[in-house]
Amino acid sequence: MSDSHPVIRVQPLGFPWETADPFLFCAYHDDAYPLGNAQMGPAASLAGRDIGQDFSRKDGWSLYHGATVPGFPQHPHRGFETVTIVRKGLIDHSDSLGAQARFGRGDVQWLTAGRGVVHSEMFPLLHQHAANPLELFQIWLNLPARSKMVEPYFTMFWSDTIPRVTQLDANGRATEVTVVAGRVPTAPQVVPLAPPPNSRAAQADADLAIWTVTMAPGARWTLPAAAGKGTRRHLYFFKGDAVTVGGQRIAAPAAIELRADQAVELHNNEQAVGEFLLLQGQPIGEPVAQYGPFVMNTQAEIMQAMQDYRRTQFGGWPWPDDAPVHGRDPARFARHPDGRVERPTTDVETTGTI
Fold first, then answer.
1. Which helix (H) or strand (E) holds 334?
2. How far apart are CA 23 and CA 281, in angstroms?
3. CA angle at residue 227 from 226 to 232, to 5 degrees?
4. What DSSP state is assigned to residue 59?
5. Which of 4, 34, 184, 225 gives a 20 to 30 Å CA spacing to 165?
6. How far is CA 190 from CA 83, 123, 313, in A?
7. Distance CA 8, CA 23 (A)
8. pLDDT, tens digit, for every residue of 265-277?
9. Is 350 within 8 Å of 87 (Cβ atoms)?
10. Residue 85 contacts by C-beta under 8 Å, 6 or more apart in sequence?
């Protein structure tokens, strides 16, 4: 592409997805889980799976690090944030702060790990007479050096409170933008929910945006230019057939790096709904030292993180097992470290995407 073309490069989508500073990576899980059993695990044979380390996608799903219920039993984080967007299914969260939650069906959890938190993320299969599809993004967002040792912070964005913008093209075909973070310049009346106070997204110069975009077949929509000079932007085309971006036809699935300072027209083809995730932000521009779930600036800080975790367990694990699930009641909730309980104002179960 020429220097003036809005598309910088196009890459295939792997696992996890490649991202750019200030993001560390994005994991996309799309699991066609079968009927659940009495333990809320899959009512299917587990033969041939590496239990505790199953990323096989055998039969369209994985157990990941789970042994009975799919998911990720307790594990530590330090120095970054996780933003978890659940489009289908439910996640049971527990952590070393004393917080627990059951969330999904369009909800978003935002967890600033800061100086250190231990959490588990399990995927309970509640339906014993129907399939249990799960679809989610987990985005790892880096923290600058000055924020790496802030106090951990847990917050929930319930689906019915997350702003959405629907724009129609000249032919009446709709594009819906779900705004997890970052204002949409063409919809200045839409105010995103406040990110955690020490989040990179809370900094005025971060120019950070996390949106999901759904385009009707044949829809046209202009992605507005970002505000900041030097902002980096990726558009992940994860479901659909093909889209034309600034005149360039791109087939799904693909990771599209765009020039953030240019508005660009997207024209979804007529064959299918097109679905996208947009990640953009001003680079932090600091060294990244990473060892598994610890993300710091230097190797010495990584060693310190490991020593601190061995010594303190980041506050310890207050739950009776490593992979808690929260019973068979499908109602979503969040119990905060101070004991406060919140619930979404609506909790209508659906198996559709948001």
1. strand 333-335
2. 8
3. 50
4. G
5. 4
6. 20, 32, 41
7. 18
8. 999 999 999 999 9
9. no
10. 108, 136, 137, 138, 139, 180, 210, 212
Per residue in 127-161, pLDDT tens?
999 999 999 999 999 999 999 999 999 999 999 99
Distance CA 24, CA 8 (A): 19
Phi, psi values for residue 310, rounded to 5°:
-60, -35
pLDDT(351) > 60: no
Please tell me the total number of residues recorded for the chain in this structure. 354
- Cα separations (Å) of 306 from 53, 260, 278, 353? 22, 37, 33, 39
* Spatial distance between the Cα atoms of 261 and 58, rounded to a whole number of angstroms: 42
Bridge partners for 248 per DSSP: 245
Spatial contact of 302 and 309, defined as CB atoms under 8 Å apart: no
Residue with tokens 């724009």: 167
Tens-place pLDDT, residues 150-193: 999 999 999 999 999 999 999 999 999 999 999 999 999 999 99
Contact call for residues 184 and 165 (beta carbons, < 8 A): yes
Phi, psi torsion values for 161, nearest 5 degrees? -105, -10
Spatial strand order of the sheet with 341-342 comes to 71-77, 117-122, 90-95, 100-104, 333-335, 341-342
CB count in 10 Å sphere of residue 184: 18
CA dihedral 181, 190, 104, 239 (to 10 degrees): -80
| Reported pTM | 0.95
User: Measuring CA to CA, how many Å separate 232 from each of 6, 168, 290, 308?
Assistant: 12, 27, 21, 34
Q: How many CB atoms lie within 10 A of CB 316?
A: 8
Q: What angle do CA 173, 177, 183 make, to 5 degrees?
A: 135
Q: What is the largest CA-CA distance in the chain?
A: 62
User: What is the Cα–Cα distance from 308 to 113, expressed in whole angstroms?
Assistant: 14
Q: Report the candidate in 108, 148, 164, 140 with the shortest Cα–Cα distance to residue 281.
A: 140
